[in-house]
User: Fold these one by one.
Assistant:
Number 1:
Amino acid sequence: MHALVFIKQVPDASQVRINYETGTLIREGVPAILNPYEVHAVEEAVKIKQKFGGKVTILTMGPLQAADALKECLSRGADKGYLLSDRIFAGSDTLATSYALYEGAKKIIELEGEIDFFFAGKQAIDGDTAQTGPGIATRFNIPLVTYLTKLDEVNLEEKYVVATRLTEFGQETLKVPIPVFFTVEESLNILSHSPLPWLVKAAQSKIEILSGENVDLDKNQCGLRNSPTIVKKAFTPEKKQRGATLTGTFDEVVDQAAEKVAPFLNNIL
């Protein structure tokens, strides 16, 4: 069994602030973290490894500092981390990113062997597009199960899984052949604590670097110049004004509320 988990290092959204004058994010001093959904993807891949044997490989694309996120995955039980890092990837949208990660995954298959399970978070908290994982799966032309909430059954002998996913109308359970690509929800599992040997191994592990020099890819499909997504305008919502506070007895408050909503009701009626 071989599982490949795609991860992303993202800004800690809980500490991101907005400059209301420029309409931009203030990133200075904001720590980078492992995308929360991918933590659960790694957890599930490691659970499968613990049950059936095999290995878990991690792949991310980003600057050299993204190696920290790979180290965290290794401390959670993954076996090897690969960092796809090159200036030619700068400014990539989800189409260019999925292409680069697809080619990086093909290189890993060449080095580490065929892959049974591909995992990614359902989306990255800094973009929220939920497009990169499905884009990679489409390039591999393999089954895709999005918004995974439960792996009901894994059958490696007969090469299938039974999986439950969220839909707009509830949940559905599917029987899907292996290899398969999952994008996962946080409700998929409960995170476990890393034992000391895993932490030590992660600290001593070497992160493998992939780039345009050792991955066979088309540079005309990478980077900002080859990304068809164009952001025409970005803005922040206006600050919400504090609502009015009504005081007095119950009857007085009702009268005040009726007086305030009367103009809106007249426009509706």
Number 2:
Amino acid sequence: MELSELQEVRRKKAEALREAGVEPYPARARRTHTTAEARARFADVEPSLPEGTEDAEPIELAGRLVSRRHQGKTIFANLRDGEGELQLYLRRDALGDTTFEEFLKLYDLGDFVQARGTLFRTRMGEVSLRVSDVSILAKALNAPPEKWHGLQDVETRYRQRYADLIASGDVRRVFRIRSTIISAMRRFLDERGYLEVETPTLQPLYGGAAARPFTTHHNALDQTFYLRIADELYLKRLLVGGYERVYEITKDFRNEGIDRNHSPEFTMLEFYEAYADYLKMMEAVEQMIAAVTVAVYGEPRFVYQGQEIDVSPPWPRISLRQAIREASGVDYQQHPDREGLLAAARAAGADVDSDLVWPRIVDELLKQFVRPYLIQPTFLIDYPVALSPLAKRKPEDPTHVERFQPYVGGGEIGNAFTELNDPIDQLARFVEQQRDREAGDLEAMPIDLDYVNALMYGMPPTGGVGIGVDRVVMLLTDQPSIRDVILFPAMRALTAEAPRDAIETPV
């Protein structure tokens, strides 16, 4: 790799440290306190200290240099670790000429250092560490992003997330909240007796959703495998086997377009409960989202894209047919054939491709006329059979199934059913999906005969839910794009050879 001018300057500083007998990448670090623990310690001891004195017990901090200013025989620097920042106060007479000059001339912003000293409060009121010894832990060859503006180029932010995290406390906050959300989801289910399980990522046959898969080849088995598009069918096999409540938080993969709501790799929570139906699962979803929101904000309310949203249960429930009819004037029940529904959708102003099959036209009506306006939490319920091949029919209306989707902030965050457990009906639905595939619907599910065979052993009445974890994180962190809540989102490869300075962190 050819280094840039700036990188070469920093590399030479690393060599100068080595020549002075200092290893710029030592194998060991010493730290007695984080910056947060140091502040807490000083808050405890300061009331007992004579005014203007310092804590007598030395401590050691470690972290990244994020700012520095030089005033004669004094250097003020800020050290940041995973819990915050603390000011370092370095004096020439305390460190000695050699160490002081090394810190001044051979250390740079972005370097990792460790500092030993005692805590005190400056005349300006800043809790600081009076440094008696400082040493380098890792020499940074790239300059950190500019402090006040961070990374401005969106593409660079996604490609170099490490630099984005260095630059922005808000970005670090987003991913801390993401961790809180996933922990709260797991806690909610664990407390209700659900068993966390793991199912295959590589599958010999994909299913459980309407999506195109990523395909790979298993050399040892000489067989085509697929990255899972959902874990639904495997989780329901576990209910056949005797478990009554299971869940999985996992990565799914769909070979589809990328936009603000879709990523080819995303995180999904799915949970299934025996002897439950979609009504019970609606209650579980609204309770979970409320609990997760409280875990983040302390109350079941948050602001997303300028709108305050209250997720307190219960949420309104509207049938899909009613929602589409009221928003577009199209009653899909009155247009059972593809050509008729296509004409009605276009007459209502929908932008619909002429080659879409009937269920995809219904889905487009939902996306274009209904979804953007469901800001407050709402359940859309009761979907056409053709749109829901894994859900149980409504007893009073066999043209529809017991399915719901939760919508919040103008977007869908999940999908759920009273699960179909009749193996013969399930096989017929798979066959119908195959017809749709032959008619051009590349997202239609293949026939999974092993899953049908599992159902033939008997699966109890079951309610199941899938929640898009990334979309929940988008809502609770007020982020407009799914790529803002995925640490390392999929990006198009750079085709041209990168310029020499492309390996630097842009300022």
Number 3:
Amino acid sequence: MRTLNVGMIGGGFMGKAHSLAYAGMPMFFWPAPAVPFRKTVVDINDELAREAAARYGFESWASDWRKVVEDPSIDIVDIVTPNHTHAEIAIAAAKAGKHIISEKPLARTTEEAKRMLDAASEAGVKHMVAFNYRRTPAVSLAKKYIEEGAIGRILNFRGTYLQDWSADPNAPLSWRFRREVAGSGALGDIGTHVIDLARYLVGEITEVMGIANTWIPERPVSSGPVDKLGTVKSSGDVKKAAVDVDDEINTLLRFENGAVGSLEATRNAWGRNNFLTFEIHGDKGSLYFNYERRDELQVCFSDDPDDRRGFRTIYTGPAHPNGAALWPIPALGIGYGETKIIEAHDFISAIVQDTEVSPNFYDGYRIHVICDAILESASSGQWVKTVEQLPAAR
């Protein structure tokens, strides 16, 4: 069986998730399209890199990402670093002929995302942006119902991503609150997941009308390099610095197929942990999904008898997309790790079979165009179109 050597750049939370996916993918999808071999992991210094290699099962480690890109034995470069490093690493990896998977958002800016797309396209390598929530079986099931016409013509999409990890003003100023590193705030961090789901399930977004807010204008300066996502709070008289990205985004949406919708993303919603939801209404039915109950898809179809019409729950299992590779009965429990395992399978399958993978850098670029339009609309108070910069898909 073919082996693909992985060089992973970044040893934090997402490094753990990706390493789990590489280890688990052949166990779930057997025979595997190829076996991902954890070759080299990179972190910001020798000590952390050595620890990451031991923890995540990599054969070797390095503290300079260029060693991975320049290594002729590496087949896949996996980018799980803060946003400001994505473009430089991905462009170098593409020029070196490596297949690339990058965490989301693809970059800090549309211009960076376009350069990444151009480099990967010109090199002819496979490229993927890791919006793994669309790999949740219930989301794939919603896509199946839509493509089958089970809810008819889509009229409306409503999506939310609500978290509370930064609602406390004493949560430190991590890189996620700094434009020079993150690019944007809640919009790029979590709103892009909703945009990806909207495009995946409904179609291209052509116009937006947005509102942006920064509720907490300054935060305590972080004391270390590790992003704790608000789990460590500062107290007492500490140095603070300005937040220069959005805390919350609300926007109306218009789609190419005539549907309309809305999107809300905030990291300041007390009581919400990972409240990623969508509700889609068609002229023949409706679908509802909540990631905090990720084994479930709520469905209602117009041809249900009058005395039985209403949302009912389908628990995903072996009969549903990717279900046969996961667990033997419905509702046994799908987690974040399983979505990453499916993501790894789909990416590696595309490499081996020389097929297109989705979402790819083109999708990542398009999402940046839409994000720019949302922020422009928030500033101008006007509807902003997203299609002027629309190139052909690659």
